[in-house]
Request: fold
Amino acid sequence: MQSDPVGLEGGENGFVYVGGNPLVRVDASGQFWDTVADIGFMIYDAASGAYHYATGDDEAFKTDMAALAADSAAAVVPFATGAGLAVRRTKAYEKYRAGKLKHFFGQERHKLDGFLKTFKSEEEAYDAVQNAIEKIVEKNGIVGRFEETVNVSGYPITVRGFVDEDGITKIGTFFIK
Amino acid sequence: MSLKFYNYEILVLKKLFEYCLKSKFSSFDEFMKYFFHIQRDINQSGEYLFLKHSNNENENNMELCNYTIVLESEDLKNGAEFIAWIGKNSILIEGYSFEDKWIKPNSKVIKIGVKKKT
Reply:
């Protein structure tokens, strides 16, 4: 049993939020459901973790444990929920980005070795191409699929991409012909 | 030796044969028999499908076919594209999507078409 965690700003009676009867009533619209959601996420994280541990998927297991830690922390912070989902999304984006970088730079046929050497990292080179192509897309009012050649660090980079319905430029691949 | 391909890969191979490789082989079957080895690399953002007749290939000399295969599947809203790098003894088909996922192996193909570079 706990007085209203919102404090006296919620009224002088700390149990008004449960109808003044903390023994049989609960906060039906506030933190109670927030905590229930967090516990639900934690059960999911633990079950997913157990499955991935059993199947030997170390990477997925680590993500499950990071999500579980985030959801556990969120359970004790009022009105914070979905932290585990945020962790999962971040991990998914990192994996996607790593896949993209491998796709762009790991191929001899793309002839990007010289270009890559002008940057400190693959991430930096990718960002430079993304920035350059976004300028071309905006300047030429491109929508849908496109192939454009942009000059980045003195290299003519052919970019295959797509401008989606939200106007976001997505690169499929790029290379030097 | 019979090579195993996913359904969507066979559709892409047929289009690539028709538009990029017809002059080199008398039929699609002959084209498929020419390659004895495949090397497949799939991740979230795309796929590399390497068909080899031999390992004797200078990859820097592979030429890009002028046609792009555009495929729409039930699990990729913005579709995927495939381009073909053609060498002396091998062909590499490069597929990429515009989303943070790649086609599921048995996903239903809704539409497949060809786009010529302008």
